């Protein structure tokens, strides 16, 4: 599985939101600048994640986006799913009925797919948050956050 730009940017944006104090709304421009994501592209991703119930939009001068749930309640799998990211290694593959090694390969990939899905839905945004905070502590608090 290779995480596409779409999936990578989505995780970066939500991790950025999770690092904000008191879950205050953050503008798309602020997130885009910190994470080096094109603003127009980020806006589209945030709209998709809002539809999936992962973020809320707040209107007004102090508006922006904030998490709709606690970071512990948002999994990496949910984030990827919300923006149409697929984690299937062989999405439409059907093994050849006449070749045993084809079925063995398919069986291995099928098992790996199940384990990968399980892992992605068990890693929360909170887990990543603590990983980032630990990294920041090691390199110094003044380190800027970029995933």
Automatic annotation (TrEMBL):
<protein>
    <submittedName>
        <fullName>RrF2 family transcriptional regulator</fullName>
    </submittedName>
</protein>
<dbReference type="InterPro" id="IPR036390">
    <property type="entry name" value="WH_DNA-bd_sf"/>
</dbReference>
<dbReference type="GO" id="GO:0003700">
    <property type="term" value="F:DNA-binding transcription factor activity"/>
</dbReference>
<dbReference type="Pfam" id="PF02082">
    <property type="entry name" value="Rrf2"/>
</dbReference>
<dbReference type="InterPro" id="IPR036388">
    <property type="entry name" value="WH-like_DNA-bd_sf"/>
</dbReference>
<dbReference type="InterPro" id="IPR000944">
    <property type="entry name" value="Tscrpt_reg_Rrf2"/>
</dbReference>
<dbReference type="GO" id="GO:0005829">
    <property type="term" value="C:cytosol"/>
</dbReference>
